[in-house]
Amino acid sequence: MEERRRSERHPLSSTIVIKRLDNGKTEEVEINITDVSKTGVGFTCNEPLTIGAVYESYLQIWTKETLHAFLEIVRIVKEGGTFSYGCIFIGMPEMDSSRIAVYETVESMK
Known about the structure:
Elements: E1 15-20, E2 28-36, E3 40-45, E4 54-60, E5 66-79, E6 82-90, H1 94-109
């Protein structure tokens, strides 16, 4: 499969809670992050989410800080009873993007 990501992805152990914004629903869903980059995040979830939908999220990063981010679902793959999602960050502040870029740098040096 051809690599289409603009930034290298790195694993990150964390859980976040997200809320869908575009239809007024405030249902919260727990997800497990599989990888993160300065442009997006991959995660698994037992709940079906909608491709193209924008979700509000609170992402806990390796420093234990929480980043407030908006995610747009761009890829969905069903694996058994679990869904695997690929998302891009929407309007992430440069400061938060830089925190993730620092993590990428440290991980690539390992």
